[in-house]
Amino acid sequence: MPPLPTSSISGSFQWPGPAYLDKPACVKIGLARVITDYATYAYLCDVYVIESHRGRGLGSWLVRCALEHPAINSLKRIALITHDAKEFYARLGFQPPADPEQYMERIP
Q1: What is the pTM of this model?
Q2: Which of 65, 95, 100, 103 stands 20 to 30 A from 83 (CA)?
């Protein structure tokens, strides 16, 4: 899996924690990370499954687990940005913003 800076992992909610193929060997096969204020908003990011384990439903399971977690499931809004997985996330209930012209970002 591509390395993430330690601060990005420790400053966010990771569900279900890293997923492991073989717990005794601690082989990491996937993760889903959520950045949230735990009150109103969450940003789903870094959903990743290693290539050798894709196509088995693990990515969907990771996202569903994160969305159903009590710390996340009552939030007003859960957002994400994707470049190539719109159909995948649509199957999990995500949709384009109702008013995309309200969305803004700052890229330094």
Answers
A1: 0.78
A2: 65
